[in-house]
Amino acid sequence: MHTTPSDTELQTPGCLDHLWFKLRSVEWLYNSNMEQQMTNSHVLFLVKQGTGCLTIDLQEYRLRKEAVHIALPGQTMGVLTESGAELELYVVSFDLFRDGAGEIKPPHQGEIPVYPESQMVFLCDLMYGCWRHESGLERFRGQSAFHELMYELIKNIRLEPEMNSRSGLETSRTFIENYYYDNLTIEQLARIAQISPKYYVDLFKKTYGKSAIDYLTEVRVNRAKQLMVHSGARLRDIAHQVGYNDEFYFSRKFKKEVGMSPTAYMKNRKRRIAAYSPHVLGQLLALKMIPYAAPLHPKWTAYYYKLYKADIILHLSAYRANQDWEANIHALAQASPDIVISRDDSLHPLERERLEQIAPVIVLPWNDQTWRDHLLLMAQQLDAVQEAHDWLAGYDRKVSQAKEQLHRLLGGETVLAVSIHKQQCRISPVRGMRDVLYADLELPPPQGLNPDQYNMAVPVERLAELDADRILLNVCQEEETLRYWQSLETSPQWLDLRAVRSNRVYPITSDPWREYSAHASGRMIDDLLRLLCGADAAASSSESLPLL
Known about the structure:
It is a single chain. The chain has four domains: 15-155, Regulatory protein AraC (Jelly Rolls); 162-268, Arc Repressor Mutant, subunit A, CATH 1.10.10; 273-383, Rossmann fold; 392-542, Rossmann fold. The protein is 46% helix and 19% strand. The chain has a five-stranded antiparallel sheet, covered by helices on one side. A five-stranded mixed sheet has the order 17-16-15-18-19. A hairpin with a 2-residue loop joins strand 4 (52-56) and strand 5 (59-63). The chain is globular and about 70 Å long. It starts with 18 loop residues before the first strand and ends in a 6-residue tail after the last helix.
């Protein structure tokens, strides 16, 4: 038995008396990723079974039964399942109101340790069933269950001893980040966390998804990368600065973590290249080049952010709709890159003029050339022609292998790519997905589909006329679109589509399917093989184009 913490312990004296909660929606995810998206409501994440990774803004959390997580309006959030691990997750959106004036905040946010043996999972099951019920009375019952859930959550927050242990654990993690160059031991870190070494090892892995030693290695390698770009120091000195007395041991650790030797990495990073759009970043990676500056954000460029946030020194704004180009120009002016690469169709005239004052600019003619043309053009400018030809040869091999597998599986069945944005359905809206599906892989489009209809908004009735055997579905991850999709997926018109009736609708994410680059095209093929042929086929395909 555990004791219920008091309101004073929760540091919420009287605040709950003035707050009103209203359930907005309940989702149940089973072994499914949630593409990074922005929320306009409060969102509660509660694990029914298994583990996974949750990202809220720039912070990563370990999803597990012993904790719930709350994201606030305006934050971005995304979920990744772990290879070989099951994850059942409830995602509960709710609104929060306050009596009178004052800022509206939930009593808790971020990660909240809880007692998993409480009634919270039962209440989520009940709430999920009621929320999807046709009866208004049952949906009202769902609101009641939600209020009971919030009560159970606050009642079952763990403060002692778990909260103190996790506070100490976070202190030890900060110590690793500040003193990575010292000879740190588990015993020393456990003393800082004020728990036993055995419990420390278990709790660190459980909380952060990796061991303390692996985290120390990650911090050291990331710091070494920064020194290689900035300092110009010798490899031996860099090894010593990040905590390795043996230069050769450091080189082995670095190569194991990064996939290339420190010498090759330093040679790769000598030139300060600025990628001015995610598409350019996808081209540079195919040339085995990591830029000094590029657009990175856990929502807008989630894949690149996760893999290369430590390698790319200057993170530019990745959200062009915010018109952040002046901030990007200012950041680049401070960094003094050697060269800037951009698309011609995305540059404001003044923006281009300002860029050219900073460094030479390679402008890719976007509408007149393919990604292959762009890759070769960049390769010529960057003295990487052989790397471009090697990558293209590997891509052709990947296409050939994938085409054989897919044609054998499909046997002539038609494939249609559909994107939903706001309250519109669009057919194959971007060049990348069209090129991969119909040009490279030569998959059969539905009869009656002509190129004039690409990127055209069409009603569901037109999708029925095309009568595709299989549909690849991209749903934009923003609130208006998700509300429309929630109503569309239960409509008779949608349910009557051939692909829906045969359970052959496959969700595809905006990244990589809406990006037009060499790297994204290779990832699209891997994703398609995973969806249609299984994980083993995708793993085999990805070997022909290894990640940098």
